[in-house]
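Quick start: read one record
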Amino acid sequence: MKGKMITLMKLNYWANDHFRKAMETLSRTDLNQKTPYGTILDLVIHHFNAINTWLSRLGYESLEKNEVNYANLEWKEILTRWKETDKKLIQFVESIEDEVVLNKSISYKIPKGKFRNKIEEILFHLTHHGYYHRGQLAVLLRQYNLPPAPATDAMVFFREIQNY
């Protein structure tokens, strides 16, 4: 199972990296476009900062130790932090020495209450969370006539890694 989880995290990194490259030329005006989800920048930040939140809950060193006002950072710095966060997620899964750890549950609290989930469920959530928000970003890029979203289907990923 750990091997499959690492593959999922690498797929997430690969897909996000394609989006980072497609979006790197966006201006602040583009990023501040109002959408049903806040601004495009808000959506990007939520997308990757959720990983930092979960890494912290899992007891792993997240990229951000304190609250960061991403709106004050340059876009290039935000893209770099997003990439580093994705790397941290892969490192977390690679650091799991025993697959039994994936079945370990953790407790956490959010505004809706207290919950308990297995680590493998959390990791599945993070990959699906990524797909969900990349889908939203893809629609917004098209809607606002910004650089088109790249193809990030899992099969494209598997075809590409076969060529290495």
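The mean pLDDT is 91.
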